[in-house]
Design goal:
With 188 residues, the protein is mainly alpha-helical. The chain contains eight helices and two strands. The chain has helices at residues 20-35, 47-55, 67-76, 81-85, 89-93, 108-123, 139-150, 156-165, and strands at residues 171-176, 184-187. A hairpin with a 7-residue loop joins strand 1 (171-176) and strand 2.
């Protein structure tokens, strides 16, 4: 059945504002975990730097394509249910937080993280969004679809200007009355 992917990755939905779960639950737990780093646990990039880069802290930008990196960091730190279920020592050693999204069986949430990251990346260089829309759509429907994929709110006028300047769509000459308000032009 259909389930919004932000149910599984609530920290990825930046359409309205930065998700409260990041500052409230994730960053404090990841900061504590990063402080526990020992020479035996150090990887090419130290924990503190990975937390900073992946979650956009201390001036680092939020990169919406790092969905899988963020998920794997939370898994490694033992902060998500799958880590506890898989017997990760970090998860078994700590008190669990409130659930960080809905868990999935096996490695399915990791697979979904990979798919989201790839779709977000592809959205920047290929118009894949049109494969997810009906043959005819309004610009608002197009914008909401792009926002749902990217996890970011887009400025309405700038989005419309970009779509029209790039000649990504063409008007059908038909108006939709199913918008709940003023009729909207349909595009293809």
């Amino acid at each position: 059945s259909f389930a919004p992917w932000y149910r599984f990755f609530p920290w990825e939905d930046w359409r309205e504002e930065p998700p409260a779960i990041i500052a409230r639950d994730i960053i404090p737990a990841l900061t504590k975990w990063a402080e526990e780093e020992t020479p035996e646990t150090t990887r090419a990039l130290p924990r503190r730097d990975r937390v900073r880069f992946y979650f956009g802290l201390d001036g680092a930008p939020w990169d919406e394509e790092r969905v899988l990196d963020r998920y794997e960091l939370l898994y490694e730190a033992g902060l998500i249910e799958e880590a506890r279920r898989d017997g990760r020592p970090a998860a078994l050693a700590r008190k669990m937080l409130p659930p960080l999204g809905t868990s999935m069986r096996f490695d399915h949430r990791r697979i979904l993280a990979t798919a989201i990251a790839r779709l977000r990346a592809k959205l920047k260089y290929r118009p894949v969004v049109f494969e997810l829309l009906p043959a005819e759509f309004t610009l608002t429907e197009l914008q909401h679809t792009v926002e749902a994929i990217s996890g970011r709110h887009l400025h309405k006028q700038n989005f419309r200007r970009l779509v029209e300047m790039e000649a990504l769509v063409e008007p059908t000459g038909v108006m939709s009355t199913q918008t709940g308000g003023r009729p909207a032009a349909l595009y293809r």
